[in-house]
Amino acid sequence: MEKLNARQANDLLDVMEERYQNTSTIIASQLPVTEWYKLITNPTVADALLDRLLHNSHRIELTGESMRKLDQSDHLR
């Protein structure tokens, strides 16, 4: 949940370019997709990376209370 530096963003883009339309990739994040762009300092790399990540993607957004909060409230016991 920290900004990617230029090297990290380029490395991730390289990986995604190799995998793009060849194999599946699963990404889990607590940060909403709408906030991902802000984590990549180079807008050109951000556009390319998010295009590869989100094109033909299946997104599952979970809602509800945090499982940690539910566990602490004796709801799960």
Describe this structure in words.
- The chain is an all-alpha fold.
- It has one domain.
- It is built from 3 helices and no strands.
- α1 packs parallel to α2.
From the structure above, extract its key features.
globular, single chain, 77 residues, mainly alpha
Global outline: globular
Give the helix proportion (percent range).
40-55%
SS elements, strand count: 0
Structural class: mainly alpha
Average pLDDT reading: 87
From the alpha-carbon coordinates, what is the Rg to the nearest angstrom? 16 Å
Task: Characterize the biggest β-sheet.
Answer: none
Can you tell me the residue ranges where pLDDT is under 50 for at least 5 consecutive residues? none
Order of helices and strands: HHH
Strand residues, percent? under 5%
Task: Figure out the total of helices.
Answer: 3
How many structural units, i.e. domains?
1
| Distance between the first and last residues' Cα | 31 Å
**What is the quaternary state of this protein?**
single chain
